[in-house]
Amino acid sequence: MAASSERVCPLCRGRLVKDNIRLYRFNCPHCFKALNPCFFPGYRWVRYLITLGAALAWAWHRGWSGSFVIFVVSFYQLPLLFLWDLIVRDFFLPTKFEAAPSLSFQTLGLNSK
Hints:
This protein is α+β, with helices and mostly antiparallel strands. The chain has one domain (about 20-100). It has two helices and three strands, in the order ββααβ. A three-stranded antiparallel β-sheet has the order 1-2-3, with no helix packed on it. Helix 1 (about 45-60) crosses helix 2 (about 70-90). The chain is flat. The model has no long low-confidence stretch (mean pLDDT about 80).
């Protein structure tokens, strides 16, 4: 009897614990298949806009003003993006997962004859 908040692999139905889950592509510890966490459709936009707003506020608070803040904001936003991932991983883990597509690399036919 699986609860709706229980995190399970969609392929093997194995239970996923917090230590095994990543915010990006990861392997199921039971079947070793690649999984992607599912977030709501606008997750990446929300993540970007919130960290951008916080970075702008942080930059202006530190004394940067005018058009130069556009160049400085990236130095403030990158640490906030990493901090966002740490916070989401600890407090808001995804509950749904999907099988990740296989990674294929284009070799430009260098090994073919």
